[in-house]
Amino acid sequence: MFEIIKRDGLARIGVLHTRRGKLETPALLPVVNPKLATVTPADIYHHFGFKGLITNSYIIRNSKGLKESALEKGLHELLDFPGVIMTDSGTFQSHMYGEVEVSNDEIVDFQRDIGSDIGTVLDIFTEPYWTEEQTKDSITVTLERTQEAVALKGDMMIAGVVQGSIYPGLREDCARSMASMDVDVHPIGGVVPLMEQYRFRELVDVIIASKKGLSPDRPVHLFGAGHPMVIALAALLGCDMFDSASYAKFARDDRLMFLDGTYRLKDMQGLECECPACRDHDLESLRALPDEKRMVTIARHNLYELKKEMGRVRRAIMEGSLWELAESRCRAHPALLDGLRRTADHVDHLELFEPLSRDGAMFYTGSETLSRPCFRRFELRSNERYSTDLKKCAILDEKGKPHGRYMGQELQSLLSQNTLPLVKTAFGPIPPDLDEIYPIAQSIFPSIGDDGMDSEIGRKEDGFLSAHGLERQEPVIDEEPYDINRLRALSVSRYQFGREATDILFDGPLELVVSRKTGKIRNVLVSGEHILSMRASDGFYTLRVEGAMKLVDRLTEPLMRVTVVDDAIPFNKEGRNVFCNFVHDCDPDIRPNDEVMVVSKEGELLCVGRALLVRDEMLAFKKGVAVKVRDGTSSQKA
Predict the structure, then answer these.
(1) Closest residue by Cα to residue 520 from 544, 488, 480, 481
(2) Does the pLDDT value for residue 97 go beyond 60?
(3) In angstroms, what CA-CA distances link 339 with 4, 28, 122, 205, 368?
């Protein structure tokens, strides 16, 4: 069973519950050769802190001594590893050396019998140069073998490998078929050649296509992605698990892994590394080590680099800054930058999982930043949900954020002249009533622009003006006062909840409670009822029970609703969180961190809170919180 603890878009901090205990994700599993462990499994667990590893069941089975020992003592005792062990099936050996002398049922039975925690199907490795027809035929075999493995797995978890070469449609079809089976982990296979050839653009297509077809309640493992320079990008796209044989393979060839690439020891001009393996060495002393000791030292260095990057990726997910980390990492190589830029082709899919807001500011790192899903969302919502009765507009240069603080006189003056002031930004033209929402006010850009930014600004300006029928004019500034808060109250609601919900919420006499210190809206009252509160952190609303009461009977179903089963009703009414296994249905347009109403199947309002997952995730997961509840209707009445 898998559950999400924290998310940043498609990236997830999660827990995979295995019979050997919990494996926290994202997780990297070092690959251990059962015949030749460059770093011992016990050291990998106790010293480096990796709680899982991968070893090859095919090699163990084909070695008489190892096979007998594994069947007698079990895999964990054989390797002296107390954590989670995943076993490969021989697929990669088949890819490298031709046919393997084992059948799918034999290798699955063997993995189960030696106590593997996660066994792997003997799938067909699809090569990037294969034809579409050849790939289809191999997928058929892989799916048949996966179904067979499911019937044989017992209490062992089974890894069903998504194949499909470089054909996104076949990848997605294969993934959807896998999702219908009782599979526990989904490796994305056949991608090592893409990474070895630095074809990261195609790798992005493969990952996204696979993710689209898979069930979200199962961890996704990117087979062979064991270099620190690619982990952040893969995690950004939703990969939960990784493995690395390269830490040892590269060490045997005197190659050291770093964030910006792999370097041969003989070519290096300096050793600027403070990891425990390198701390007591310079280049000369490292080169002078005996072959075996040097290999082990470099392998340990490589593991430290991997460990550090995995920790940095986890931290970025927790902080909501994984986009910034991935963008910086992808500048290590032009081919990685190609991969990052390819995400722009998938921005509409990525937007489905983009949270309404994040902790901390959004940082611009380069023109690729403009393709993030938060830019796409603002463009769509400002064009479709924003509303104005004005027909004239004036474009102003940005002077500071929020715009109302630094440009208040210009904005108010133009509004008093029935002219809509729009501030020129990389998000597009910003009307004054949306200048405090995330990420408009919570973003940092360089003061010196670039060509990519300038062209995007022009395109988005034209789109916004066309969407609202606005005509440009030169701004004329005087000192006429204008109260913008009433506009802001409505516009933020339209952007956040949509026009229909806003018409219902604001149906009645409007009263705003404004902070005396900052002048910002704090509370919204309609007909004397406190329906909304505005958050200072991101400029969005929190929905109060009184506001939800106005919506629940009039807002078109299933908008803004999470419906729960009857057993959950008394708990949710008391204000307790909504757990995934009690969700009956959900509005498909809900995004992470959206305000939602939790209702019974009969439509009774139970509580209000913030969604942590999207619909497909709520319905798929059997464990974890779906909605973080703020107020229940029972406590409200009390």
Answers:
(1) 488
(2) no
(3) 26, 21, 29, 9, 11
- Please tell me the CATH code under which domain 486-637 is placed: 2.30.130.10
Domain 2-244+322-346, CATH homologous superfamily name and number? Queuine tRNA-ribosyltransferase-like (3.20.20.105)
What residues are labeled active site? 88
Residue 76 structure tokens: 């964990």
Nearest to 275 by CA among 249, 303, 250: 303
267-298: pLDDT as tens digits: 999 998 999 999 999 999 999 999 999 999 99
The residue extents of the domains of the chain are 2-244+322-346, 362-482, 486-637
Sheet holding 11-18, edge to edge: 2-8, 11-18, 21-25
- Tell how strand 11-18 and strand 2-8 pair up: antiparallel
At position 554, the amino acid (one-letter code) is R
Q: Is the dihedral of CA 387, 389, 391, 392 positive or negative?
A: negative
Nearest alpha-carbon partner for 7 in 234, 322, 464? 322
- Of 185-199, 306-320, 465-479, 534-548, the poorest mean pLDDT is in 465-479
Residue 101 — very low, low, confident or very high, per pLDDT cuts 50/70/90?
Answer: confident
Q: What is the 3-state secondary structure (H, E, C) of 61-116?
A: HCCHHHHHHHHHHCHHHHHCCCCEEEEECCHHHHHHHCCCCCCHHHHHHHHHHCCC
pLDDT 10s digits, 373-409:
999 999 999 999 999 999 999 999 999 999 988 998 8
Rounded to whole angstroms, the Cα distance separating 493 from 531 reads 12
Residues 304/46, Cβ–Cβ less than 8 Å: no
